[in-house]
């Protein structure tokens, strides 16, 4: 791609370093910004720099926060003995959206993935193990995505805290509410039968 | 979507104002930037602000440029009597990429589109008409996309310069090189038959 302007070229190159945005899309975004008032570009770049500079991580659960301790960890009404282990802030947002969870979180910041060069030391695993060993945790819920990397991470953590006297659980896998059985994959359907729950319990949770 | 951080929320809101990027994608981009060195965010926002602040438009053809006159208009080897009318810089880049055009461009900055609130006065039409009437142009090639808006814009310009004694042409519509006839739409196939060209001419252009 040859550009008639170095300024455009530089902006396109920077934008196209973001995941999922190629040079063509980047050029489309740049041309869009050129048609908008200059303020929009200023606000965008200010918001990005402020976010990247001033962002804090909760020193308790490592979730992204504007304070040293996030709102969830600071909330005395939440059950601080029930810890849900998730990958990143998006999972926290998704689980909070259900309104079903009243415990706290532990945000790992990723999954163990040798292919992407992510080892246990790059994740917030040791602080979770410490938390468990200090006796402040009654139950750990593993809520990572059920991929090879997620399972590996679960198992790595499990091995480190297996000798502690706490409950360990994982979120239920099964057929999604509203899905048709015939289109479900065999592994999921198989698990949903193996891990079936009492009918009366299922009525109550509706 | 509820965010645990106002900084994240603001960044996501600004990014998701860009076309084709929703809140979820915006959050993905923000989390990506957080994992990268701080410099990447700085470079990105600096490139955006510099682009938006310092960008110039060629005073001759209105193409985006770093100088008052773009490289194409400043090139004495180009045929300045042959003017190709296009929508925006992307079309200039596409035509330049073919290496087949040695004239100059006139960049309208869009198409007449009542639905999007774009009228002739928002486009660089009057300067094109002036250019034609000053007698400096021998041929105008209309190279807008063949949509309702493109055809409207072509016709609007055509009416304004119809009484001047210049050649007016449009780029050829037809079956793309490498495409199979049976999958072509009827309008395109019909036009390619109506506007057929001498076989010997087609051999030479290969």
TrEMBL record, chains A, B:
TM annotation in the entry: none
Top-level division of the source organism's lineage: Bacteria
CDD domains: TOPRIM_recR
Keyword Transport: no
Alphabetical UniProt keywords: DNA damage, DNA recombination, DNA repair, Metal-binding, Zinc, Zinc-finger
PANTHER family, per database record: RECOMBINATION PROTEIN RECR
Protein name in UniProt: Recombination protein RecR
Organism: Flavobacterium faecale
């Amino acid at each position: 791609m040859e550009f008639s302007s170095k300024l455009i070229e530089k902006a396109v190159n920077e934008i196209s370093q973001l995941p999922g945005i190629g040079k063509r899309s980047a050029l489309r975004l740049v041309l869009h910004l050129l048609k908008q008032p200059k303020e929009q570009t200023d606000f965008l770049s200010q918001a990005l720099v402020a976010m990247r500079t001033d962002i804090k991580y909760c020193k308790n659960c490592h979730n992204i926060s504007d304070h040293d301790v996030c709102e969830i960890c600071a909330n005395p009404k939440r059950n601080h003995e029930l810890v849900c282990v998730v990958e990143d802030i998006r999972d926290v947002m998704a689980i909070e959206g259900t309104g079903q969870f009243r415990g706290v979180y532990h945000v790992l910041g990723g999954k163990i993935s040798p292919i992407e060069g992510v080892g246990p030391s790059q994740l917030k695993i040791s602080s979770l193990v410490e938390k468990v060993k200090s006796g402040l945790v009654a139950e750990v819920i593993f809520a990572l995505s059920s991929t090879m990397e997620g399972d590996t991470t679960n198992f790595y953590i499990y091995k480190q805290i297996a000798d502690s006297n706490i409950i360990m659980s994982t979120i239920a896998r099964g057929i999604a509410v509203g899905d048709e059985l015939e289109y479900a994959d065999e592994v999921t359907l198989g698990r949903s039968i193996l891990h079936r729950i009492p009918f009366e319990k299922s009525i109550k949770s509706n």
